[in-house]
Amino acid sequence: MALLHFLQAAPSAQEPVQAKALLGAFQELLRELEVAQTLVAWQEEALAAGRAEEAALHRQALERLTDFLAEAGELLRGCLLPARQLLQLLDAGCMALTLSLIPPGLDQVLVASLERSRNPELRAAIILGANADVLPRKAAQPPLLNDRERGALAQAGIELAADTPARQMAEHYLAYIACTRSHDKLLITYALNAADGKELAPSPLIQRLQKLFPALLVERYAEPREPGELTGGAESLSALARQLREEREGTPKREFWRDVHHWYAADGRWRDSLARLNQGLCFSPHQGQLAEGNRRALYGDTLRSSVSRLEKFNACPFAYFAAYGLQLAPRPVYEITPRERGDILHQVLAELGSQLYGDGPCQQELTKAQASALVGQVVTGLSPGLLSGILTSTARYRYQAARLQETLANTLLLQQEQLRCGAFAPIAWELSFGSREGDLLPPLTVELTGGRKLEISGQIDRVDVARGPGAAYARVIDYKSGNLALLPADILQGLRLQLLVYLQIVLDNPGFFAADTLKAAGLYYLAVRDELASSPMPKAGEAGSPPGLKLSGLTVKDETAVRLADPQIHGHSQLIPVALGGKGFYANSPGLTTEELQQLLGRLQEILQQTAQRMADGQTDVLPQRTPTFDACAYCDYRAFCGFDGEIKRAGGSGGEQRGA
Predict the structure, then answer these.
(1) What are the tens digits of pLDDT across the range 149-172?
(2) H/E element, 196
(3) Mean pLDDT throughout 557-581?
(4) What is the rounded CA–CA span in Å between residue 422 and residue 565?
(5) Are 377 and 505 found together in one domain?
(6) Contact 41, 53 (CB under 8 A)
(7) Phi/psi of residue 493, nearest 5 degrees
(8) To which H or E segment does residue 612 belong?
């Protein structure tokens, strides 16, 4: 009956009609059909049955329909439109009504950034991605005006936005706000790795909270242990990949993961992804060696090599093959790279050594101003020939040249103080050995099978000699711009052969140093670092000796040699890595005994022969050395195409695990 009344009230489709009259007829239809009473009854029935979400849907449906009809009446008041058009508007409005629900038992869920989240009545707060430089966010210095310039403008009365320290304080305040607005629960999460696998550090906020609450524990995300914990999709596929990798490395996985693998294999949507996953797990980089003809064409029967090349081969045969067999090299760029910077340091220090010690020990004690002036003269004289005069090409490089001169001046003062405290004096700088014209010493030759041989050539940065009772003592020193430790284990691995080869060359040629008997005193690195520029210059033996005064490397535990290097030694030396007391060397003293050094020199011949034999055989395996203290892939120029994945361990112990020489 109600429907009949509505149809009778509705005019023909094209006849104009008052919108109010048509809406009134529709509302009357709803009343006669008892729509509101029905929805209320359904709501009460759902509530009585404990179905809160269903009850909320019925309540919202009635509210939205009532609001829609009221708004339509206001908007269409006085409108005269064809009945068909009004009915279409009414139908579209009803179809557009939407319902939304908040989960029962929660008053509100707020998702917002820290800058916009200002609700002080939170029951629980979840902070996502609390990593270093993210929370608190690192405030970058504005690119246009730096903080010093902003301070000058502020003093002149010009108002600007906050400077970097103020913005950094604001970021710390936002982190405080995030941690204190919830009065019941606080959950903070941070990522262990970035999307590219790079390790990420947690926010300093985590460490601060652990200090405030020592009993606070950090829980790591755990892989699903039961089938019911799987969520499906890409997330579970990633978890499956990790399980398969661990199983390949020898860790057994739970039985249900096999069912997960079968499920993904049977589902056509994931078949391609699973195939790529299996291909990655089974991937193995290139292993093999050159054919005889190719090997002879590249290397010949006499391998002429430097120590650094041998070290590169032991670090990764493929990198050696790419660099010296195929002669691949990065595209030259007109800039100072760390490698070019090291070359500049070596050239300048060699020239300084020749000027200061060329005629014997330097008796003059240089001041900081004198050292800076001397370094400036040498750098100015060498600059036109250094990388086509790059040091004077731009303001940026002129600044770098000044920084370099400051570093060299401090290194020179440290070197002078080092030598002043002992009896050792530099005898040679950039001492060349090999079979080339102009080499001062002969090469180190190693015989190989098949009539082949290895000739090692190179340059020794510095050789110091001291005269003792009945013999002379020599030590070799290599300049390094980084922090390097010389460990016997690295020598035996063939990764740090340079200083030991240099020492062997020196010991094999005592006549060059005007000595009948020449003994080894040590093999050292001398650090050349920018940090030296800001270090004070106390004398040896004073408290707080500057970084760089003490050499790093291996000292031979010969008491005569040690006292020649540090006559004032009592306990741990501040000049060389050794500890000597009144009753002899400390039990935990670093260094090598004379017998240990002889054993190491004896093993050196074996290491060189084994390395050269593998080189001569044309080995080109992608097999980089990766140990806790050494990573051949870290600065490799060829990692983009060698195919080695450091995240995948190979079954059977290959693929980056530690190897013998």
Answers:
(1) 888 888 888 888 888 888 888 888
(2) none
(3) 90
(4) 5
(5) no
(6) no
(7) -80, -10
(8) helix 594-616
Could you give the number of structural domains in the chain?
A: 4
Task: Answer with the one of 380, 400, 420 that is the final residue of a domain.
Answer: 420
| 4 burial type by CB count under 10 A (0-12 exposed, 13-18 middle, 19+ buried) | exposed
What would the pLDDT profile of 219-241 be if each residue is shown by its tens digit? 876 666 677 767 777 778 888 88
Bridge partner residues of 524 (DSSP): 477, 553
Write the CA distances from 409 to 345, 350, 416, 530, 534, integer angstroms.
11, 13, 11, 11, 12
Tokens of 212: 């405030």
Is the predicted pLDDT of residue 531 greater than 60, yes or no? no
Contacts of 553 (CB under 8 A, 6+ apart): 486, 499, 522, 523, 524, 525, 577
User: Domain span at residue 396?
Assistant: 333-420
Residues 341 and 377: their CA atoms lie apart, in Å, by: 18
How far is Cα 46 from Cα 52, in angstroms, rounded to an integer? 7
Q: Could you tell me if residue 220 is inside a domain? A: no
Judging by DSSP bridges, how do beta strands 518-527 and 471-480 pair with one another? parallel
pLDDT in tens, 109-126: 778 777 765 565 788 889
| Whether 363 and 445 share a structural domain | no
Cα dihedral 324→329→334→340 (10° resolution): -40
Q: Do residues 389 and 447 both lie within one domain?
A: no
| 408 and 460 co-located in one domain | no
